[in-house]
Task: inverse folding
């Protein structure tokens, strides 16, 4: 029986697969990751950089964990528990700003 | 029991291309391998594949009424046929068989279209009323038995399964993107829609009349224009103020007693059969109750059947064995693993006739095969108890979210969610609040309870290639328009129960995971908890005795406490699940995935997006429920597209009957 529950069973957080060109900027990289990984290549739902990924059903809470793993692996930044909030993760713009703040602080 | 089919010429004489009966009946042979019957006149053809259960010698179909004026083809059971026969005999009707089929015809002759209101049963049937030149169709209250319709070149086609319609020469309906969008949101089509363009289903609790000049206004698509439908029953509940009423222990005890009486009656009347009746045992409360009732109230030597999984996360063998030992049944188990699921998955989709978002039907297909191999044609199960007595988490979730909506800033209220779903405590709390907080500003929205679930499923629709604009909205409008007038006055849990009964129960549990998996191996399921008198009683009990605080099915537990061991009674509810995408990593699974998930021209599924999904799968990264639904949904969708499209003729060739295999009746 399906609940509406979010599945947070342990995830394999390594990101295998494709290589991106190094000069791709953060915004494109984030967008491409979301489109490939959560939307299987369908960019139509990602109508802008500011729409809410959660409200629009693009990611669920497991998706948040996948995003964390992506940021850690591809941008070499660490994410603390108290940073796991919609202000940092719930849109392309928020993610880009978050990566910007973290890399500037590093 | 049985599979039915037929054709009605709407204008002019009946046109039956070569082999139509042999094809339409033949593809239903799994539903009724015992006998094949047919009847026709100048306007109508009726077909029947029989699974003989009652009056083995004389219950052949199609069957005639008085003086051959009415002819019926019937799938299902009317459990109160003995009482109805007595009642009808007192009214002057003469019976020539001891079958429930004849009772339906006589009841129709006596009471007309209202005959269905007298039936306690699970049924889909068609009666051709020759004097009035009208076809009368009916489907049981909860939709236990299926009935599909299509209009093709001036003729109405109907059948128990869509493959029988598809077998009509020249009729080749295609998968419909809008209809698939519904499945990818609600898990099922909203009746009367089906996954195929131009194919509809008679909604549960409805009758239909088809005739040349139907009069009145035509129904909305996808129902054919020649059909006029009428709802004769829907689940009912107390108005919200009565539903909230607190019940003192003395009154609660009385209610538990009433539930017990109805439940005993519902279970024992479902043992009426001229063949042995077995029972499924999942290890949960509901099927344990069913089995225990049979044990206590009959002298039936009971045989029970269970699914076990090699993966302990899904397995409930210990509970099943404990219950079997408690009541002393003759118990058998089929062990299922991923390879077994993958190995039968194509057949599962062939039978379910719709994309499925989980593999959970597959083990039940293995289970019905086990029951059949042990010589059983009929089993009782616990299906329906969670809907009728508020057992599912979605009801508790709705109650918590409604409570939270009255103080949306409250963290304590939101934290109740982790009591429902303990594993949520690992998720980032801010995101949980955001996810389950969807719709919190509209707690009186009719669909409030189901918002989060549908939001989580919706992603699957992104794998479709075509234009889905407005498809979901149209389905929501159809659902809203179908809600009974009383709905607005019900409380949040009752509303959720109604939605669950009319969408997920009828459209998935009773069909893809129920009738189609059982009948796929010629086994009939019977469901005491879906006895309409029991459901009506439960609907008159306040919500507080069903979902007491957050304790699910509390009145049911009280009513059967003496029948069950404490371990079963107190165990936390375990949702029935099977391994999903992980099932396909073995050789059989990979072969299936390679053959059907790749690039396909003209597919309704988007090849590029399927490729991205497969890449994620290949890397072992399909971890979320949502990704798993996408994978199973797309694989089943592709199988359906092939086996009901270009692969159809090859698939049915061995099923088409020899002309002399059909017994033509009458005339």
Result:
């Amino acid at each position: 029986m399906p609940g509406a529950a979010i599945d947070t069973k342990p995830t394999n957080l390594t990101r295998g697969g494709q290589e991106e060109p190094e000069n791709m900027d953060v915004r494109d990289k984030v967008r491409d990751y979301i489109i490939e990984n959560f939307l299987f290549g369908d960019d139509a739902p990602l109508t802008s950089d500011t729409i809410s990924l959660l409200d629009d059903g693009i990611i669920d809470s497991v998706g948040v964990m996948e995003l964390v793993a992506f940021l850690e692996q591809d941008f070499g930044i660490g994410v603390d528990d108290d940073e796991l909030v919609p202000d940092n993760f719930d849109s392309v713009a928020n993610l880009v700003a978050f990566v910007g703040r973290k890399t500037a602080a590093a | 029991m049985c599979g039915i089919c037929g054709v009605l010429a709407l204008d002019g004489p009946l046109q039956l291309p070569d082999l139509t009966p042999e094809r339409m009946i033949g593809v239903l042979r799994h539903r009724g391998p015992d006998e094949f019957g047919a009847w026709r006149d100048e306007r109508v053809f009726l077909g029947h594949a029989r699974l003989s259960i009652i009056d083995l010698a004389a219950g052949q179909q199609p069957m005639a009424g008085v003086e051959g004026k009415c002819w019926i083809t019937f799938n299902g059971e009317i459990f109160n046929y003995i009482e109805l026969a007595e009642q009808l005999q007192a009214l002057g009707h003469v019976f020539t068989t001891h079958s429930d089929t004849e009772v339906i015809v006589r009841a129709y002759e006596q009471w007309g279209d209202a005959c269905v209101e007298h039936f306690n049963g699970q049924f889909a049937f068609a009666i051709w009323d020759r004097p009035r030149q009208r076809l009368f169709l009916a489907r049981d209250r909860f939709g236990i038995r299926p009935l599909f319709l299509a209009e093709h070149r001036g003729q109405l086609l109907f059948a128990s399964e869509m493959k029988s319609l598809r077998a009509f020469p020249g009729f080749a309906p295609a998968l419909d993107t809008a209809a698939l969008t519904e499945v990818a949101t609600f898990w099922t089509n909203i009746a009367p829609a089906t996954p195929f363009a131009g194919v509809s289903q008679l909604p549960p609790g409805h009758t239909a009349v088809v005739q040349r000049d139907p009069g009145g206004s035509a129904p909305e698509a996808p129902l054919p224009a020649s059909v006029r439908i009428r709802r004769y029953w829907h689940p009912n509940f107390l108005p919200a103020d009565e539903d909230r009423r607190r019940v003192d222990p003395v009154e609660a005890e009385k209610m538990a007693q009433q539930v017990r009486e109805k439940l005993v009656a519902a279970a024992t009347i479902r043992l009426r059969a001229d063949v042995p009746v077995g029972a499924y045992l999942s290890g949960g409360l509901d099927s344990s109750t069913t089995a225990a009732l049979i044990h206590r109230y009959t002298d039936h030597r009971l045989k029970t059947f269970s699914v076990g999984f090699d993966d302990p996360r899904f397995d409930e063998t210990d509970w099943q064995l404990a219950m079997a030992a408690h009541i002393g049944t003759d118990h058998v188990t089929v062990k299922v693993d991923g390879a077994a699921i993958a190995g039968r998955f194509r057949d599962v989709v062939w039978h379910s006739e719709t994309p499925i978002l989980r593999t959970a039907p597959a083990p039940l297909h293995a289970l019905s095969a086990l029951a059949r191999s042990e010589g059983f044609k009929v089993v009782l199960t616990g299906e329906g108890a969670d809907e009728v007595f508020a057992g599912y988490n979605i009801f508790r979730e709705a109650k918590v979210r409604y409570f939270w909506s009255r103080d949306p800033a409250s963290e304590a209220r939101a934290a109740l969610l982790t009591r429902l779903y303990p594993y949520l405590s690992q998720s980032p709390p801010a995101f949980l609040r955001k996810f389950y907080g969807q719709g919190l500003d509209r707690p009186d929205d009719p669909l409030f309870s189901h918002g989060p679930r549908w939001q989580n499923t919706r992603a699957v629709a992104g794998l479709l290639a075509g234009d889905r604009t407005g498809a979901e909205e149209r389905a929501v409008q159809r659902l809203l328009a179908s809600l009974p007038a009383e709905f607005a006055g019900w409380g949040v849990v009752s509303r959720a129960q109604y939605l669950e009964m009319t969408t997920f129960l009828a459209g998935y549990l009773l069909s893809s995971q129920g009738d189609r998996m059982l009948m796929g191996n010629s086994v009939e399921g019977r469901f005491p908890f879906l006895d309409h008198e029991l459901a009506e009683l439960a609907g008159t009990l306040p919500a507080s005795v069903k979902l007491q605080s957050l304790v699910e099915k509390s009145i049911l537990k009280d009513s059967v406490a003496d029948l069950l061991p404490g371990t079963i009674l107190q165990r936390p509810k375990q949702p029935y699940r099977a391994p999903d995408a992980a099932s396909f990593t073995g050789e059989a699974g990979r072969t299936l995935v390679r053959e059907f998930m790749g690039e396909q021209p003209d597919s309704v599924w988007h090849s590029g997006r399927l490729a991205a999904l497969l890449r994620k799968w290949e890397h072992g990264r399909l971890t979320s429920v949502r990704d798993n639904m996408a994978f199973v949904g797309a694989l089943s969708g592709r199988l359906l597209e092939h086996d009901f499209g270009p692969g159809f003729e090859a698939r049915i060739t061995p099923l088409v009957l020899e002309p002399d295999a059909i017994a033509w009746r009458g005339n």
